[in-house]
Amino acid sequence: MDLHYQHDWNLSPEKAVELQQSLRQHIVTVDQLEPVQTIAGVDVGFEDDGQTTRAAIAVLSFPDLQIVQRVVARRPTTFPYVPGLLSFREVPAVLAALEKLQTLPNLLLCDGQGTAHPRRFGIACHIGLLTDRPSIGVGKSLLVGTHSPVPDEKGAWVPLQHQGETIGAVLRTRVGIKPLYISPGHRISLETAIDYVMRCITKYRLPETTRQAHKLASETPASEIAALEAVPEERQLRLDV
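-> structure tokens emitted (241 positions)
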């Protein structure tokens, strides 16, 4: 996999902030998508009290949301836990997982923030920019910004505001359940991001993409993960990208 941008990962938190400020200038928040036939969830968990990063990617066919391929990559954790800089801790393992895919999916749904970030450069932006793939941030909690109450109906959303700017949306995916925080990562608009997230919702709060990736990243026993790492899955969708 050829990266669209490359940079050093061995950075201090101060240098990482400077890099975010620089890279954010390249983020595109208008639609630049191919026809979406595959859509992937990206999530990261940790093992060994945080010493090992476990990145998981679940690729689903779209729009029927059937699992096409699942991959996991483990890497030593080298960056400290710093709010707002989680991509420097997690993305190296995500890139290793992406390398295992037969074909890059048309759209990435990342567990975490996109532009709904203090510097408008969350993990979905970072992954999307490096790989030059359309990406969406699907956050389970608020990182920054304020919003009005979200109507309690499926698909309802309100803008997420920060410093006079709309940085994302607060989206109700199920009645009576906490909303999600949706924001563009790269090469997608906010309205289109909301539409794709809702089209990936089944009967759960999370879209099926990130739900499947979360299971692999944080809930699947290590013995099963080892087998998944070692044996590629047979059912894979071939696409020209």
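The chain has six helices and eight strands.
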